[in-house]
Amino acid sequence: MKKSLLLTAVILLFSISLLAQDALVIVDGKKIKAEVNSIDPNTIESVTVLKDQAAIDAYGKEGQNGVIIIKTKNSNASNVTKLEPLVIVDGKKYTQRIKSIDPNNIESMSVLKDQSALEKYGEAGKNGVIEITTKSTITK
User: Fold this and answer.
1) Which residues 6+ apart lie within 8 Å of 77 measured at CB?
2) Edge to edge, what strands does the sheet with 44-50 contain?
3) Least confident stretch, 28-42, 81-95, 109-123
4) What does the pLDDT read at residue 92?
């Protein structure tokens, strides 16, 4: 049975290497440029393939030729890339942690997704946008 699983993993890696010529490849949350064949098949826990609009929605223009996501048995949760939204506070990009904003100082908040985020903010909005207006801006 183990030989069968190993053979399946090797065939899967070979297939992925053919697909990965143009696709974005993510291993344990990190984009890789290296050959997929360099991954030991015994270390693969799972493989996910995104194509068409799902790939573009998740990774923007980089995903237009598909995305191959490989999770290895050695990965841990801290290696996973999080798709963080763009945060705009009072019309300016906010680079601090969103938790640092005092909720009592928020006048309004809007969430933009998909096409509306891309239309308004371009590539920067590909993972969504959170627009926050603070009370201090309203009183100025």
Assistant:
1) none
2) 30-31, 24-27, 67-72, 44-50
3) 28-42
4) 94
